[in-house]
Queue: 2 jobs
Job 1
Amino acid sequence: MLGYYTRLALKSFGRNPGLTALMVLAIALGVAVCIMTLTVYHAMSGNPIWWKNDRLYAVTMDNWDPNQPWRPDWTGPPPQMTYKDSQYLFASNIPERKVVMYSVDGVISGVGSAAPERVSTRLTSADFFAMFEVPFLYGNGWSASADRPAQPVIVLSREENEKLFGGSNSVGRTLRWNDHEFRVIGVLDEWFPRPKYYDLNGGNFAPPDKAYIPQQWGIDLALLNNEDTDCWRAEKVDNYKEFIASDCVWQQMWVELPDAASRERMQSLIDGYWAEQHKAGRFPRARDNRLTNVAQWLRDNKVVDNDNRVLVGLAFAFLALCLINTVGLLLAKFLNGATITGVRRALGASRRQIFVQHLVEVGAVSVVGAALGLLLATLGLAAVHHLYAAAHLGQRGGYQELTHFDVVGVVWAVILAVAATVAAGLYPAWRIGQLPPAVYLKSQ
Amino acid sequence: MSLGVRPILSALLRNRTGAVLVAVQIAIALAVLVNALYIVVQRVEKIGRPTGIDEPNLLMILSTGFTARYQEVASIEEDLSWLRSLPGVVAASAISAVPLSGSGSAGALMPRPGAPPTDSVNHMEIDEQGIATLGVHLVAGRNFRHEEIQPPLTENNASQFVPEVIVSRALAEHLFPHQNPLGKPVYDLLGQSATIIGVIDPIMGNFPDNPHPDWLYLMPRLPAPFFDGVHYAVRTQPGQRDTVLRLAEAHLAKSNPDRVVNWVRPLSYFKNLSYLWDRAMEIYLLTVTALVIAVTCLGVFALATFNVSTRTKQIGTRRAVGARRRDIVRYFLIENGLITSSGVLVGCALALAAGYWLSLEYALPRLNLYYLVGGVLALWAIGQLAAWQPARRAATVPPSVATRTV
């Protein structure tokens, strides 16, 4: 029966090829715009480490100005910490893993004849790699004993290892970082969390750093954060010693807490420290010390911005428009063929059969429309990717990172497209089945 | 006229579905058109704000010293004198951050020591050629003199202020409303003071996205190497920018082994990146709006065509009993006009609701009603145009059709 209905549908398309093409095009456009927008939205709103959402927490303390929050449009503590506060909390044994970090630009030289190059380098602590589940291609990270005193060890990103050592296993080789000798102990595999949740200061979709060294190096060499450093207090900061003792925020801190009990202990440790410091005249604002999981962290930092919500709204308005248009076209098409339907009814086809027959026709239109829409969306996203990549001179880390299709997204989009179109076709298919056959058998 | 409309209306009401579908499409199209254009116009205005900077002819360079032998001041002097000697270069200055790039420094600046700090104020360090290099207009006072340029901050005096500053007119107006700012002292958070010696206007600083991108003051000082190194701004004669870029890239890469030149790029690169998302929004909104209009036209056209084709017989009959071609065209256009008008009416409500939601999302002023009026007229015209061809075709139905059976 289905084969027969399909043949009928094809015949019907043949009767009005123009109208059929318009329907397919309307559906395809609606679907394409929706898929493009949702792909970008999905990439923006992703949580790259969702499976650790109940373990991984950003630590923040509100040490800010009593008269105003960190930023005019911000509530809660600033997203980074002071050096002294992060160091105090880092000494705690409550977290299973803990990281304090920032990033700087260091110059890598001394590898063969390669020209010295400035690379973004993360100054972090030993747990970084296990905590954020960073994959290794060669070697490993360093152990906590290399954190302090800082050992001259360096981990390279896969990309940087490619550039410096042609992609070979470089573990054990040496290079110079800011003119100090370092030994390569590990090379990362491809790793590009989007958004860059563990440090949003350099841009939500910025590429990961190209090199990683123990954090104490930054302090020993008096290096400043290359992303954000924010200060509020009127205090004299003439040298690095005064800087690391200041109320400026520039350190990122994350902890891994396996259960509610450890979370409570960590919170009370922070609050206890806050109370002590508050008594000594620091922390002039109301107590607001937070352990924030990744999902909440991404929300607090407004990774998905207003424009994207507007675009999603627009995309759905457009899809609705296309579907309503399709309903109108289908209705017109079916009523145009009402004489034939009348004959079929008169010859004994039930209403149900007429309904199913027309639904098959609708299904065919929707599948073709959805497929074409998917194709258009792929082309559109490729064009967007190209535009963004060109504006970034081919470097990674711009909005072009948002144009990646993922399998789940595509499956959802196709389901959405077909379901929406079939839903749109229900009414015309039902309506045509309701027609009294006699009217259409009469000559006018 | 009312004599013509009533039968059309009652015919319409007897066969509603198609008409309702088209009216809904028109309503959605109006809401999208009006609000999308409103957003686009705001982005165009944002991108088009005056910067006061000679954007097309500026190059930016970032140089970072990385060895113990690196001499900051000597390196800056050598680079600048080489850059200034190049043919095609108008002026060159060391500068602490890239204008319009979204990254730089900001802090409090107050008209009296201890006054409550206002929103943060952008500041840059430049030398005596800085103003000429950026191409900004000095509207009052004077430029920095060569001997006033301070050495870079070091790790022992990092909170030092400068004796003189040049401020933007917007900042001067904010700090000293309706007063002549020249000669007035301004204070930093530590209470150190500087004297205003000049006023520039217009100018946009490092942060196009800030609430006050034109609050800026310039300090006569060579940039400190702490952050990412020293930037140079180079202004070239028109048409010479890319030649100078290639020369600078080749020479600076080799001229000093104790530093790396991270990049030599046109200023437009940074500006484009700052506005990339806004531009993408413009393109995307305009494209989708165009599609919305196209699909709506298609809907109007299809319904009118369908109506004409199912009514061939009636049209023939009307023609046979005396209706002129004009009357037939009029019939279909009035019918379409009724549908479009009801769609537009619903669309106004939808557009206002969407506009209200947007004003909450963006904290922007509510939708300007001129847009709504324009949108209504545009959609009405578009709707009539789309129905024009089918109506003309209806008019060509010969009266003899009435006498035929199918």
Job 2
Amino acid sequence: MTPQPLVEVRGLRHRYDDGTLALDGVDFLLFPGETVALFGPNGSGKTTFAHHLNGLLSGEGFVSVCGRSLEKKNLVEIRRKVGLVFQDSDEQLFMSTVLEDVAFGPLNLGRTPDEAAPEALRALEQVGMQHAAGKAPYHLSAGEKKRVALAGVLAMNPEILILDEPTTSLDPPAGRSLVALLRNLPQSKILITHDAAFARALATRAVFFERGRVIADGPVAEIVERFHWYPSASNATECLRR
Amino acid sequence: MKILAVLAWLVAIGTSPRITPLLAACYFALLVGVTILARLPVGAVLLRAAGVLPFSATFAVISIAAGDAARAEALIAKSYLSASAVLILAGTTPLPKLLRGLESLGVPRFFTLVVQFLYRYLFTISEQAQHMRMAALARGSQSRRGRRASPRFRAASGAVATLFARSQARAESIHGAMLARGFTGRMEPLAAPSPRAADALFLAVGVLAAAALRFLPGAVR
């Protein structure tokens, strides 16, 4: 028997106020335990799509998350289930200390400060950042900020993690350490990335976006090969060889 | 507690009928003492407090023109002393704690929330401005010398428009990030302020000093 999908999207369309058609009939499924990489050129609609899954944007079509359709009355529950880590961690870290920032989500879910603080500390421990609890977020390195941003969503105990360009501005050791960290997290994941090596290390499936549509869905290696989605350096080597 | 002590100071300064040089010196000495105790840079605090002077000087000039030089002096002295006290409070208290303190004193949550966002977005605008300045310098933007005012003004006004557009986009992203973590318009504090004995002592000393400076000169006279 096929398991119930955690995320089900059918015919999703989104047009921005300036008239740009960002999503043009996207169909997508995410099953429990899966990690799916979203590939595609810049401006192909990946981030817009991710924002729909958390209810930050709404368009035409059907979106269901953990059995709940994307409607205003379900937004609080959907945002609890879907943890969205933004590309720019600075946008996500806005409180004065790391602990307060990580506790922001649990407090919004109605936890008391006495409940939220240990939950935030646990999430920080999970990402190896408990030592930074009292620090100001802007004193952290890019890799540390990414981990704290991840802790901010883990503290809400989500069932699905969406990471938008998680390796951007990370040096190779920080990138490897992020891969190790994500591997140990039990949640289903959607990774928006241009980094084929990162996707290969974590994802079981890849989806390719182009001009607001999903034009391919399959194993990561196959999609990388089909769309020549190699890391820039190996791509350049390949071009030179030809 | 600190807010209440500063409030007592402001009331004492504001309601003093006359600020004699001796009284002003007493207030000033106490403020400098507190600044040193708080390990704040005295010179910087005194210099920044002077930022209020252009505003109070405007009204002082009006008072002098109306023939009331004593009022002009009092205006300058009171505004400077008040600004120094507020700066010491701001310099020794992180904004979130200050806002929490204000809330516990009954200031509406909406007001403190607006201040918190304003503070956050000021950083956003300043960050954007820094990035734009670096980008302009990196592409050979000239310093002020050697350029005519008109093109400079045009470039500056264009940059300000871009700065606001970019800041708004960034502010929207920050708001989106907050919504994504369940923000519904209410920011819950992680820990409520818990006053200690030392805070109560500070308040008592602050209020007593303010009361002494406010009422003793009259009693002596």
